[in-house]
Amino acid sequence: MEIRLDLLPAEKRRKLDLEGGLPFGRIFTDHMFLMLYDEAKGWHSHQIKPYEPICLDPAAAVFHYSQTIFEGLKAYYGVDGRIRLFRPERNMARMNYSARRMCMPSIDEGFVLKALKTLVDIEKDWVPREKGSALYIRPLMMGTEAFLGVKPSSEYIFFIILSPVGAYYKEGFNPIKIYVTDKYVRAAPGGVGDVKTGGNYAASLMASEEAARLGYTQVLWLDAVERRYVEEVGTMNIFFYFEEELVTPALTGTILPGITRESVIQMARSWGLKVSERRITIDEVIEGAKTGRLKECFGTGTAAVISPVGCLAYKGKEYIINEGKTGPLAKKLFEELTGIQYGEKPDPYGWIQFVP
Ligand code: COI
């Protein structure tokens, strides 16, 4: 498959402007990758072209019934000047998992990864060099058939856009405060909680807004059936470190299978820590916070990296974890993970792929 290149001349290309710091997801690079799908041709018209708005029919399926999936990964500028991707093949595989669940066509994972690397290479000057910053990569697919009946679209757009980013939370690597909601739920068994689809995020907004009004950065979701079991946080998976056990909720179908989550489990196990993927009740967490058995709590995600949680609010009370400070395990995981991503440390797990 050929990718048509329609690139801006050098004098029309913009430069990464770091004045005023790097926000998350507001600046976009000069070019994007795009391909189209229809039932007769399959995926076709693969191209890298200038970043620009997409023109869609107002009846396009995605506007009405939200048939859309996405991914998030990053390109890192290494200490040796090489650009690294972190486990991008896992994002490609998850995209196809999401596509299946949302009745969308699968992508050729190898080909799309090659297209992604070509795009990042073209935009390599946009990869910020400061540690902690990165080029965020957002692949997205949506149904575009103009039809108001409820059925899988017969036409799709897939694109990849790039955004140089700094920290996702204003707190950076400092502990955040989280609000445990038992009023709203994110995902129910049999639903699409383990799929990276826009609707999950739309459905989360009201709880996040209410939490933000009360001074909390994110929401911790409980299971939809009993509202007892911890699931995940708005944009990350969650871990609890008890005296001798690192616990994260098991992937029961309502939780996003995070790639950072998977990597943290692997690192911690390789250090000899006992890691349990199991159901964990909010009562166990609160009891641990009260007695001090809960040593640390942190979230994991591509955007959030490793994000320590210093305070949980539940049923009108605040519980402070590790005196509201970043704990040694979160720090060690952060340093190991970012060390591998920025090429400061060896990559014993084979997680890194280079661009080009
Ligand atoms: C990511 O961590 O890449 C995500 O997709 C979270 C995003 C919604 C900010």
TrEMBL record:
Coiled-coil annotated spans: none
Alphabetical list of CDD domains matching this protein: BCAT_beta_family (cd01557)
Keywords assigned: Amino-acid biosynthesis, Aminotransferase, Branched-chain amino acid biosynthesis, Pyridoxal phosphate, Transferase
EC number: 2.6.1.42
Record Pfam families: Aminotran_4 (PF01063)
One Gene Ontology MF term: L-isoleucine-2-oxoglutarate transaminase activity
Entry keyword Transferase: yes
Amino-acid biosynthesis listed as a keyword: yes
InterPro entries: Aminotrans_IV (IPR001544), Aminotrans_IV_CS (IPR018300), Aminotransferase-like (IPR036038), B_amino_transII (IPR005786), BCAT-like_C (IPR043132), BCAT-like_N (IPR043131), BCAT_family (IPR033939)
Top-level taxon: Bacteria
GO BP annotations, alphabetical order: isoleucine biosynthetic process; L-leucine biosynthetic process; L-valine biosynthetic process
Catalytic activity field: L-valine + 2-oxoglutarate = 3-methyl-2-oxobutanoate + L-glutamate; L-leucine + 2-oxoglutarate = 4-methyl-2-oxopentanoate + L-glutamate; L-isoleucine + 2-oxoglutarate = (S)-3-methyl-2-oxopentanoate + L-glutamate
Cofactors, names only: pyridoxal 5'-phosphate
Residues modified to N6-(pyridoxal phosphate)lysine: K196
This protein's pathway: Amino-acid biosynthesis; L-leucine biosynthesis; L-leucine from 3-methyl-2-oxobutanoate: step 4/4; Amino-acid biosynthesis; L-isoleucine biosynthesis; L-isoleucine from 2-oxobutanoate: step 4/4; Amino-acid biosynthesis; L-valine biosynthesis; L-valine from pyruvate: step 4/4
Job description of the protein: Acts on leucine, isoleucine and valine.
Family (UniProt): Belongs to the class-IV pyridoxal-phosphate-dependent aminotransferase family.
Protein name, entry field: Branched-chain-amino-acid aminotransferase
Organism: Thermodesulfatator autotrophicus
